[in-house]
Amino acid sequence: MLKQLRNPVPLPDVEQRAALLAGKNISYTLKRSSKRRSIGLRIDDNGLTVSVPLRASESWLHSVLQDKAHWVVQKLDGWQSRQRPVIQWAHGERIPFRGEEFVLQLTPRARGAVPQLHGETLHVPVGADAEAARIEKAVTLWYRKEAMRVFGECVAYFAPLMNVAPREIKLTSATTQWGSCTVHGVVRLNWQLVKMQLHLIDYVVVHELAHLVEMNHSPAFWSVVERVCPDYKQHRAELRSYGVAE
């Protein structure tokens, strides 16, 4: 008589692990999926994530991790060195804007008053005892207003050079894209981009305007980008290091 087979112990879909890679102890998130057929590695602000087929063997996983060990360590080191510092919303702290840093100065509250940039100082009229949330809200509104101004200037400069005319420029708060463009000519740009260096802002604007010529990422599209942004490959790589796509 055949013995009844035991049901296999279900494996967790997500698991926190660690491995010794290139001499460094690396923590990572392991994700299992029945839809995967191969092992994939991704590095972002959550660190290393390894996605594997549901029944991937430990030996296969170990082999892939060791094979990519130096790549993982190099990418993690590079990612961490490029991480944007967390802004401290308080008097005297520094905030990024167009690739530079400016000092927050809290000034007395006044009805209708808005933050004003003077030299290297951003005056924020929220009162000296304002809470962090209030300061952040005021500065974020200022960021968004400045983003529309800066992006508008970029579009006004590059659109004629590319012989395009976007129907509308809008801001977005997407966490996975710096920008997008619709077939109807609406260009959306992430307001957080205004914190970046001007050459990166220019590149994203050019990238999205190029979609008004080629609504894809074909060689023809990249030719359009390159005509007005010859160093686009370097700029693209720099932006991708922040873990957000164009």
Supply the key terms.
single chain; 246 residues; Zincin-like; four-stranded mixed sheet; 6 helices; 11 strands; globular; disordered N terminus
Q: Give the mean pLDDT.
A: 89
Task: Report the span from N to C terminus.
Answer: 63 Å
CATH class division of the largest domain: Alpha Beta
Strands of the widest sheet, in order across it, are 1-2-4-3
Q: Note the total helix count.
A: 6
H-E order: EEEEHHEEEEHEEEHHH
Q: What is the CA-atom radius of gyration, in angstroms?
A: 24 Å
What share of the residues lie within helices? 25-40%
Q: Per CATH, which architecture of the largest domain?
A: 2-Layer Sandwich
**Poorly predicted parts:** 1-5
Kindly estimate the percentage of residues that lie in beta strands according to DSSP.
Answer: 15-25%
Structural class: alpha/beta
Q: Tell me the major beta sheet.
A: 4 strands, mixed
Topology (SSEs and partners):
Elements: E1 14-21, E2 24-33, E3 40-44, E4 47-53, H1 58-67, H2 69-82, E5 94-97, E6 100-106, E7 116-118, E8 121-124, H3 132-162, E9 168-172, E10 179-181, E11 186-190, H4 198-210, H5 219-228, H6 232-240
Parallel strand pairs: 2-4, 6-8, 9-11
Antiparallel strand pairs: 1-2, 3-4, 5-6, 7-8, 10-11
Short description, anyone?
The chain is 35% helix and 25% strand.
What report would you give on this structure?
This protein has 246 residues and is α/β, with parallel strands linked by helices. It has 2 domains: 14-82, no CATH class; 94-240, Metalloproteases ("zincins"), catalytic domain (Zincin-like). Helices cover 35% and strands 25% of the residues. It has a 4-stranded mixed beta sheet with strand order 1-2-4-3, covered by helices on one side. Strands 5-6-8-7 form a 4-stranded mixed beta sheet, with helices on one face. The termini are far apart. The relative contact order is 0.09.
